[in-house]
Amino acid sequence: MRLGLYGLPAAGKTYILDRIKGIKVLHGSDMLFDINKDFYHMDEKGKKAVRKELANSLLKENNFIMDGHYSFGDNVVFTKEDGKLYDAFLYLYIEPRVLKSRMEKSSKNIKCLKFDIEKWQNTEIEKLREYCHEHNKDFYVIDNQDLGYFDDIYTVLKFIYAVSDGFSCVNFAKEAANDILSMSNFTDITLTDGDRTLIKEDSSSLVGYKTNIFDGNFYTGFQSFVHHENMMKYTNASKKLPISEITYNDFVLKHMDNGFVLTSGQPDIWKNISEKIKRPVFFGNQMSSDTKFFITKFLQKNRNVRAFGDSMNDYFMLKRADEAFLIAKPTGEISSSLKNRNLEGIQIV
């Protein structure tokens, strides 16, 4: 497994790499310098050639993690060779205010302050995610919604080790798509989110579980990994889960004859719902926004996909589907997580 750790200057990539054990760690900047001692004095064309040489030379290697850069401000340095090199991309997100503070104190990185840090970081995330969606690669945004940075990297390291050991939203999606195809001979397949889509409630809230892990609005495999682990700890610590009535969304339910549920909701509740409506439910720590996208993409090799969802966790699935329905709130408003998102081609119901 070849892992790329990306993020803006001063994000803390080196700090994390220096504390990884059991995985070969490579420092990209040092290796570029080893190839050409004049690297930092070369023009962009020369630097690009060295970056390509490094990426190509590492294709024969396996099981390592290396830091990298997508861009420096408006100058994109990411190459197709970089894209081919890595099996998975991990992006270290740090709140812009924290990055600015670190850059102000760094003689090396203070020059970065001439750029719009928030825009720069958001653009890198969007572009890398777009690349990974196109090329069937895993992309994870690693963030800390409590602080905006990491004072403790235990969870970060735990996730990196999990990815190195095989955690993969793309592979999970391939398996799920194959399972769905084996269960359905119909030309049209329905995929639906669970909470606030097939049912009107949030299943996690029904058992009293709350989280801020999704507040960054990323919904990648890192968030699903942490969310699932925390929710299961909460569930296992609860002596008895409260039982609440479930209200179905009739508009979605009527399309479930050949439907499949993709949810990051409370597993026990969704197992029960699955038995009641007699439809399969897919869930777990790899059920992310990207997973839903890839399940849709892989199914479309053989089928037409109709999709239902209500939030950013479903956005990429909805945009990819042949027919898509966004479930609005009872007030008629849509989820705030979809603010400034392009909803063209998605029907709001």
Describe this protein's structure.
This protein folds into two domains: 2-164, 3-Layer(aba) Sandwich (Rossmann fold), CATH 3.40.50; 169-348, Rossmann fold (3-Layer(aba) Sandwich). Helix content is 42%, strand content 15%. The chain contains 15 helices and 13 strands. The chain has a six-stranded parallel beta sheet. β4 and β5 form a beta hairpin. α8 (169-183) crosses α14 and α14 (289-299) packs parallel to α15. The longest helix is centred in the middle third of the chain and has 19 residues, at 117-135. The radius of gyration is 21 Å and the shape is globular. The model has no long low-confidence stretch (mean pLDDT 96).
What are the defining features of this structure?
349 residues, alpha/beta, Rossmann fold, 2 domains, six-stranded parallel β-sheet, five-stranded parallel β-sheet, 15 helices, 13 strands, 42% helix
Q: Portion of residues in helices?
A: 40-55%
Sheet-strand content, in percent, reads 5-15%
Note poorly predicted spans.
none
Strand order of the largest sheet: 10-9-8-11-12-13
CATH structural class of the largest domain = Alpha Beta
How many H/I helical runs? 15
Tell me, what's the shape? globular
Structural domain count: 2
What's the β-strand tally? 13
Using only C-alpha atoms, the radius of gyration works out to 21 Å
Order of helices and strands: EHEHHEEEHEHHEHHEHHHHEHEHEHEE
CATH fold call of the largest domain = Rossmann fold
Distance between termini?
Answer: 42 Å
Question: Main sheet?
Answer: 6 strands, parallel
Average per-residue pLDDT, rounded, comes to: 96
Structural class: alpha/beta
Name given to the CATH architecture of the largest domain: 3-Layer(aba) Sandwich
